[in-house]
Automatic annotation (TrEMBL):
A Pfam family per the record: Peptidase_C14
Descriptive protein name: Caspase family protein
PANTHER family xref list: METACASPASE-1 (PTHR48104:SF30), METACASPASE-4 (PTHR48104)
Residue span(s) of domain Peptidase C14 caspase: 18-268
Xref: Gene3D superfamilies: 3.40.50.1460
InterPro entries in alphabetical order: Metacaspase (IPR050452), Pept_C14_caspase (IPR011600)
Lineage: Bacteria, Bacillati, Actinomycetota, Actinomycetes, Kitasatosporales
Length: 284
């Protein structure tokens, strides 16, 4: 009998001491994680967490995923969700062919570089399915580049507010000024993370990874009062389990309900498993 494990991460704030005084306040990320954990529990998954704000450190997240890799075998599934800010650091091991930037999850004490995430994915056994939901900015293909639309002028146009702090609370992207300051201060640590890892090769991951993201690479993900826009729409489509379609069908129905400037993406990586995307979501 297959095993289903789930891990849910949600950060409404980060440690200002780790981010040059920036607390990264958001409103709905913790609730996203709680709601996804509830869905997973109802579907029979063994739920870890949710890991909320101070509990969502890089060490805890990495250790939790490594523990899951040690438990899962062929035919099993990991359901992993992240709601929070997205960030970037310069790419040093040349695994990003476009913008030369590595993408990050902005965890409580530091950024988790995508190289680290994919290294952990590489520890899962052949035949394991990994379903990833990432409700953060520039998350289309586990994220590739920070969109130009994050300029102050474009944000003001999109959100109809002249208050930069209000704008910052409504999108899930670390401000570029904070990214630059944090990297200048902690460059040795982030460079060491990349220099101790080989360039990521998604084809060498034996598990099958299926991601439904909050937006395309060149878009932003909106926060909300109760849930993020993407997570809230997913819950609307799922309808407490009444949805009867596949992962692909779930993605299509979410896209239909989203605004044109935030289009969720479906992305597959790792070992080819054509049947995965045709399965019903939350199927263990």
């Amino acid at each position: 009998m297959s095993i289903g494990l789930s891990v849910h991460i949600g950060l409404n704030q980060v440690d200002p001491a780790a981010y040059d005084g920036w607390s990264g306040e958001l409103g709905a990320c913790e609730q996203d994680a709680v709601d996804m954990a509830g869905l997973a529990d109802a579907a029979g998954f063994d739920v870890t967490g949710p890991l909320l704000s101070p509990a969502a450190t890089a060490e805890t997240v990495t250790a939790t995923l490594e523990a899951a890799a040690g438990r899962l075998a062929e035919g099993d599934i990991l359901f992993l969700t992240y709601s929070g800010h997205g960030g970037q650091v310069p790419d040093l091991n040349h695994d990003e062919t476009g913008d030369r930037l590595d993408e990050t999850w902005v965890l409580y004490d530091r950024q988790l570089v995508d190289d680290e995430l994919f290294e952990v994915f590489g520890k899962f056994a052949k035949g394991v399915r990994i379903w990833l939901l990432s409700d953060s900015c520039h998350s289309g293909t586990v994220a590739r580049r920070l969109p130009e639309m994050l300029s102050p002028q474009e944000l003001d146009r999109r959100f109809s507010t002249a208050d930069p702090q209000e704008v910052g609370r409504r999108i899930r992207a670390m401000p570029q000024s904070v990214q630059a300051a944090v990297y200048r201060r902690d460059r040795d640590a982030y460079d060491r993370i990349q220099n101790t890892r080989t360039a990521k090769d998604l084809a060498k991951i034996d598990a099958s990874v299926l991601e439904i993201s909050g937006c395309q690479d060149n878009q932003t993900s909106a926060d909300g009062i109760v849930n993020g826009l993407f997570t809230g729409t997913l819950l609307e489509v799922w309808r407490g389990g009444a949805f009867a379609g596949s992962y692909r069908g779930l993605h299509r129905e979410i896209v239909k309900r989203m605004p044109p400037d935030q289009t969720p993406n479906l992305f597959q990586a790792g070992a080819l498993n054509s049947a995965f995307a045709r399965q019903r979501p939350f199927t263990i």
